[in-house]
Design brief:
The chain is built from one helix and nine strands; from the N terminus they run βββαββββββ. The chain is mostly beta strands and 119 residues long. The protein has a seven-stranded mixed β-sheet, with no helix packed on it. A two-stranded antiparallel ribbon has the order 7-8.
Amino acid sequence: MGKVEATVVLSKCSSHNRTFGMRIERRGGDWVSTWAFKIDDSKAKKEGFDKTKIKGSFAFDPEYPGCPYCGTYGFVQCGTCGKLSCMTAEATSVRCHWCNTLMTGFESSDSFEVSSGGR
């Protein structure tokens, strides 16, 4: 079995304004989120997770546990800062706790360019 290409991207819980990491791994041409865990901003920076950059299609593993704070499985990428926040499927707006932008009018996409440290 070959080496697994995996990394961590940061996200914020839109309900609790808390940072969490999403472990993602390359499967074929896709990035697949397999796990999520609570982490504070200083530890995320110390681990270098704020420097993660990925590009490509994105999916969730069936075993993905959701946001570790609110349990939500969905997420949205901020159009202003490019960072991720969790969101429910029913949400009509989400506040980006990275840059304070109010996001509305969501478009669905399975391909992203994400930088945990911003664009």
